[in-house]
Amino acid sequence: MQEQVSKKGIWKVIGASSLGTLIEWYDFFIFGSLSIVISTKFFPADNPTAAFLSTLATFAAGFVVRPFGALFFGRLGDLIGRKYTFMVTLMLMGGATFLIGCIPSYEKIGFMAPLLVLILRLLQGLALGGEYGGAATYVAEHAPPGERGYWTSWIQTTATFGLFISLVVILLTKFFLTDVQFDDWGWRVPFLLSILMVYVSYLIRKNMDESPEFKKAKAEGKTSTNPLKESFGNKYNLKFVLLALFGAAMGQGVVWYTGQFYSMSFMKTVMFLDSDQADTILGIALLFGTPFFVVFGKLSDRWGRKWVMLVGMLLAVLTYRPIYQAMYQITDFTTKEEVIGERKVEQQEIRGGTDDVTTRYFTDGSSLKQEHILKAAIGEDGQTVEKRSEKLTAKISGGNYVKLVFLIFIQIIYITLVYGPIAAFLVEIFPVKIRYTSMSLPYHIGNGIFGGLLPAVSTYLATNAQVAGNPQFYLEGLWYPIIISAVCFVIGAMYINKNMVAKDLN
């Protein structure tokens, strides 16, 4: 009977913790999911490539600041408790996300628009830096002995579900609005909706109890008086922090962001896949892949955390380039046979110019729409000049569609291997009194710095390769996650002990 009550109690803990964490990830990922639209709203529109790169840099800024949130909120979590700390992070994240949806466009307030977005993005990063460590620690400290991998893996699903829900909300918003309405104001809806979800999560979380391990430590007077000093000033504990970062977290971070963000950016900006189709394909892969977080979390309770995580990194190192080459070939229309007589040519008047649209159809069921846009603009000398631009939109179907879903799904499996066990791994190697602080920093450096910079760094590497005339430029961005994962694999394989458990530093 006691076992049943215990199980029921931990499911309540999982539900309350996961809902709040899921909403925070949703808030954080809405920005990335709408990065292409945001680049046209908050940045100068005269250079789309620079605007997109600026958006990716702002997106990355939220990741870079996460370690500072880990230090600030981790310290609070070890001083005053897990529950109250991640209540604060929830409200901070929700408020920042809501306000991003309220900022006027660049056309209306100029450079104040990207500045305000950057500030709010930094606040999002600080909030997430405190949220994850609190939620993972809270759940782990409720978990029965020998089952931490299984129970904390439910928290691990929230990041992927957060991205999945952000994609679903965007697709539903687009479904109920016209393209013009979505472009004008509809893109703000996913940001504004977050305030309602945050409020619901707040009502649930405020009734939660503090974790039993922290309450016990506090009752016995064994909580830390200076978590930062004890976490990073003690050489023994600092060694574990560095090993957690370079032997696990940084590899996990780049695998995670390659599979879920680089893949999405690659489909939209390199393969030129229709945005809705790309979001749907990623959403399907996420839906089928997410249960494997729990599978590999549970397996890590039996086999140990180390090799479950390292296998995921090794597979990524060995297969990323073949996977992305296969993805690229799906919309490489230079190798496809066009259906004779089916080409459609249209011309339409648009605001300030014309739009010539040519749609080509191919024998494998795919299509390519080429839009040649000609607009009148005022040049630097005050004279009217013609501005030409081209937009490509590919669509796929049948076997190509299934193949692309499968290629993304494989990358999601790699994510579940490295991410499913890592919360339990990080919790177990640090003592209770400094656990929140000690585990949060390596996790958020690995994910915030190494992982968060991946979209911007990889895009930069691929762009440079394209300018240099490299025919396989689209693969060059992958060197970043491949090298980081390889280094992490070697360090983890050599120095991580699968039975490594924290010792009390008293």
TrEMBL record:
<dbReference type="Pfam" id="PF00083">
    <property type="entry name" value="Sugar_tr"/>
</dbReference>
<feature type="transmembrane region" description="Helical">
    <location>
        <begin position="12"/>
        <end position="38"/>
    </location>
</feature>
<dbReference type="GO" id="GO:0005886">
    <property type="term" value="C:plasma membrane"/>
</dbReference>
<feature type="transmembrane region" description="Helical">
    <location>
        <begin position="277"/>
        <end position="295"/>
    </location>
</feature>
<protein>
    <submittedName>
        <fullName>Predicted arabinose efflux permease, MFS family</fullName>
    </submittedName>
</protein>
<feature type="transmembrane region" description="Helical">
    <location>
        <begin position="112"/>
        <end position="130"/>
    </location>
</feature>
<dbReference type="InterPro" id="IPR005828">
    <property type="entry name" value="MFS_sugar_transport-like"/>
</dbReference>
<feature type="transmembrane region" description="Helical">
    <location>
        <begin position="441"/>
        <end position="463"/>
    </location>
</feature>
<keyword id="KW-1003">Cell membrane</keyword>
<keyword id="KW-0472">Membrane</keyword>
<keyword id="KW-0813">Transport</keyword>
<feature type="transmembrane region" description="Helical">
    <location>
        <begin position="404"/>
        <end position="429"/>
    </location>
</feature>
<keyword id="KW-0812">Transmembrane</keyword>
<feature type="transmembrane region" description="Helical">
    <location>
        <begin position="151"/>
        <end position="173"/>
    </location>
</feature>
<dbReference type="InterPro" id="IPR005829">
    <property type="entry name" value="Sugar_transporter_CS"/>
</dbReference>
<feature type="transmembrane region" description="Helical">
    <location>
        <begin position="236"/>
        <end position="257"/>
    </location>
</feature>
<feature type="domain" description="Major facilitator superfamily (MFS) profile">
    <location>
        <begin position="13"/>
        <end position="504"/>
    </location>
</feature>
<keyword id="KW-1133">Transmembrane helix</keyword>
<feature type="transmembrane region" description="Helical">
    <location>
        <begin position="307"/>
        <end position="324"/>
    </location>
</feature>
<dbReference type="InterPro" id="IPR036259">
    <property type="entry name" value="MFS_trans_sf"/>
</dbReference>
<feature type="transmembrane region" description="Helical">
    <location>
        <begin position="185"/>
        <end position="204"/>
    </location>
</feature>
<feature type="transmembrane region" description="Helical">
    <location>
        <begin position="478"/>
        <end position="496"/>
    </location>
</feature>
<feature type="transmembrane region" description="Helical">
    <location>
        <begin position="50"/>
        <end position="73"/>
    </location>
</feature>
<dbReference type="GO" id="GO:0022857">
    <property type="term" value="F:transmembrane transporter activity"/>
</dbReference>
<feature type="transmembrane region" description="Helical">
    <location>
        <begin position="85"/>
        <end position="106"/>
    </location>
</feature>
<dbReference type="InterPro" id="IPR020846">
    <property type="entry name" value="MFS_dom"/>
</dbReference>
